[in-house]
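Human: I hope this is not a bother. Would you mind checking the protein record under this note? Thank you for your patience.
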Amino acid sequence: MNQQGPLADVLRQRIIDGDFAPGSRLSESALAERFDVSRNTLREAFRVLAEQGLVEHIPHRGVSVASPSIADVVDIYRARRIIECTALRHSEPEHPAVQRMKDAVDAAEDAGSHAARDDAGTWRAVGSANMAFHVALVDLADSPRLARTYRNVAAELRLAFLKIDDPRSLHEPFVRKNRAVLDAFLTQGAAAGATELERYLVQSERVVLGAFARMHLA
């Protein structure tokens, strides 16, 4: 693996999958050996990930996985409302991405129906399906630039989720809400879908901020 782009993509996926915890230090020597790349290649991958908000360089301490703050969460949801609600408001139910939205909701419902109460891995899979729904929703805009921007926002959001040790409370309620957004969009039109989505994002932000507040009080 001697290409900087693919290495950054691999590290990005490992980070959002939770292989490296938010705030954990990334050892240059260990990662260079694991991926069989030079340190220069690894540093370039770190630079790409830093631009995406996924790692941060701390002087005299090296590179660490980003650990989103409460202010970061507020800004992430601000960006989500602007991007997602605008994309949905100006879309048509006949768009090909709608099928991916349907598939994602079905996948989340199916995974959730088989998940035990404390099955963290399955609830994270539900969360992945939920995010796939929102990625498909943004693709309704037919804008590669908007899709790239949202990809980075979604990755930072996954880091925020990883800081909260209760994936069920994060993801279970929003399976139903994704279904409600989809149904409103398909049966009542884009404006109704966008209104339902706005309510969804407000509640989701409150859930995440509430969890962050409890962590800071603990």
